[in-house]
Amino acid sequence: MAAPAPVSNSQHANRTVLVTGGGGGLGRVIVEHFLSVGANVVTCDINAELLADFTAKVTSAYPEKTLAVQCDITSEAALDELFAQIETKFGKLDYVVNSAGIMDRFDPAGTIDRALFERVLAVNLIAPTMISKRAINLMQKHQIQGGAIVNIASIAAFKGGAAGAAYTASKHGILGLTRNTAAFYHNKGIRCNAIQAGAMATNIGNSMAGGYNQQGLELAMRQCKICTRKATVCHHADHLMLCS
């Protein structure tokens, strides 16, 4: 992609933001939004193919303002290395967008697979918590004022049947994490907000490639029928800019 001239007077100019899951989908659009306003952007993604495409099209256009890292965010060692690279290249971190996530297969508690349940919680809840921990410590180390953490939640944080038990539990947890982080750090120069995302066209559904619970999917479709207009990834990226 050709690099457009960034908005030099933007409040985000030369701020450094970490976007997890930034190789594709919503995360990719968020990355492009931040770059367009002059921010430095770090993206991590476990998907090597998406990250290679990101490097070819985005990093090549913004070599001084981007850092792309293949990273399993459920690994403590991988997160330590990620944050070391952030500090080495940019010296600080101002914003975090916890965008990475995976879907379950719409199974309720009666049919849920334990391994899938633990995997969904590891990616969707535990990883954002551990990333927030490291981000807060790095922000405080460099005395960042105006720091922000934005968690991508879901309507499943409010509705019981908008997804399976695993995804629903993870997004309820993200809402709790957001509220707790905001309560503890709002007076220390760090804000925390969540975006309650609805259905949109991203690659998150790839985790259902092995099959899904038909009854669970039908319930989710009925519970979400009030949402007659699908949001686009650009809508949510625009909202996120207001939170950061």
From TrEMBL:
One of its GO terms (molecular function) is oxidoreductase activity. Pfam families: adh_short. InterPro entries: NAD(P)-bd_dom_sf, Sc_DH/Rdtase_CS, SDR_fam. The keyword NADP applies. Keywords: NADP, Oxidoreductase. Belongs to the short-chain dehydrogenases/reductases (SDR) family. This is NAD(P)-binding protein. It comes from Dissoconium aciculare CBS 342.82. The lineage of its organism: Eukaryota, Fungi, Dikarya, Ascomycota, Pezizomycotina.
